[in-house]
């Protein structure tokens, strides 16, 4: 009998499936990236529909959100489920998005003195019961702590031992012994802590709290640390390949008390000559630099005013430009101190000057 | 400094538990967020902070008073707050003429500022303006990021990481499928980030997976990226460092083939098969006298076979 053939049946089954899934399938050009541990989905598709929408793309945003949420829910429903107290619960995988921690990784504490000894000898802590039977009170009491089983300071009758002084107070003696034991324990605890932290914390001076600094900052911190000795760093040893620090000597240099007689004579005579001069000595380069700076400042102030008020006469700018054309020839002769300042300014000024000249030209036309 | 904490021992168990909760651990606690108002916060910004607090409950602290600080200039007061309240995420709202409706979103590492991103609020619709039912507080939201901008620039990538950190909620192993109630959708488009939150309605579809319909529920914000203060690469790397104990362990000596069968490998020492320990049955143990007679018997048997 020729019933429906196998291929037709299969095709029909596929069609039925597709229809069923139609309601939950979403077509996307690029697959979303899922991080189910965080219930997170990232859609890399460029939002073309949204770009075409106007200023308030609410409906389009909602449609996009619906599609993306549908895909995420599809993924979540694929997860293995189990029944926990009458509710259906899905087991989430580990989150894959790597997020920064809020606190640094805990460092393992170094062993205390006793722990090191115990490890060496192979001593393991014995499991002890919490409560101990106390004969005196006739009940179970703690091994240690408040109202413990054998507290020798709480005894109401103490026999005076044979060799002891009869006038000595045995009760206070026991209390004193207890206090000494407590103090010793505390001392040992602090010593263990200090030993642990000596290895963990280098000096905090000059170092960033999170242990994170640039090379220059670390270098500076190192230099400061070197100089912070009683002899101000004079007898500090250096590492084998470390270079000597440059420029750490005195900045002021004085001539020796007696030495070069000829130079001393020359200096004294020069000084006398200057003092006897009636006219003040004019340093030409300094004067011109000062004048130039003043002119530039005036120009800048005027330009600001001009730009605030609006466009106006540009005629005088041309002459200003011409004036500025002069000084650059003296650039080579500038002194070191002023030269430093002037060097940083000319590039910017140069561009301004050029702009000024152009503007002047256009306006004249 | 934890050294100082341990020099002064806590006198009560409660204090000890408090300190243990705050110390660095292998598996960290859920990150708390603090929501702070700046000196000149206006009504919009205050309402935004209140709505975010509602979303972040119970892992958030809303400071009611105004704090006159500027996060981008001086981070010490933020770090002080973070240390006092043990919060590693913060949201700071302010408003001035130059930066209207400003929101600074940030996170801390070791009580020092790691990343800070300033966002401007262009449009805001509050929780109470949308009149419909809301979901219970403390539900874990679903997060969706749309738009290719989130991977292009470093700023956007950090913003995405920061938003995930801020909104994801506690990490859980199981989740009740009916309890997936709301979704936060972030879209990056034309330099703006659209933040929308929708409530989920599960409708019947032909198969097991339900069809989703969305209903706008919560705060919706249009954000613009302003300044950023991102951590340097090596500080960021330091904060991302995973302790060795938590790294996923590779299972060795196991392999799978294409049919789904799992194969395992066992490594053995070389065995001397003659000295193999098999089961001992005491009754069958040979006594010396029997041994001799057996030998004698064996010999004739052999001859017979021959």
Automatic annotation (TrEMBL), chain A:
Pfam families noted in UniProt: RRS1
Record field: compositional bias (Basic residues): 302-314, 351-365
Assigned keywords, A-Z: Nucleus, Ribosome biogenesis
Residue ranges with Basic and acidic residues bias: 235-245
Region feature Disordered, mapped onto this chain: 199-254, 282-365
GO biological process terms held by the UniProt record: endonucleolytic cleavage in ITS1 to separate SSU-rRNA from 5.8S rRNA and LSU-rRNA from tricistronic rRNA transcript (SSU-rRNA, 5.8S rRNA, LSU-rRNA); ribosomal large subunit biogenesis
Main location: nucleus
GO cellular component: a single term: nucleolus
Protein family membership: Belongs to the RRS1 family.
Protein name: Ribosome biogenesis regulatory protein
Source species of the chain: Fukomys damarensis
Automatic annotation (TrEMBL), chain B:
Primary localisation category: nucleus
Keyword Nucleus: yes
Compositional bias ranges of the Basic residues kind: 277-286
PANTHER family: BRIX DOMAIN CONTAINING PROTEIN (PTHR12728), RIBOSOME PRODUCTION FACTOR 2 HOMOLOG (PTHR12728:SF0)
Domain Brix: 31-234
Cellular component GO terms held in the UniProt record: nucleolus
The organism's place on the tree of life at top rank: Eukaryota
An example Gene Ontology biological process: ribosomal large subunit assembly
N-terminal signal peptide: none
Protein name: Ribosome production factor 2 homolog
GO molecular function (one): rRNA binding
Region described as Disordered: spans on this chain: 269-306
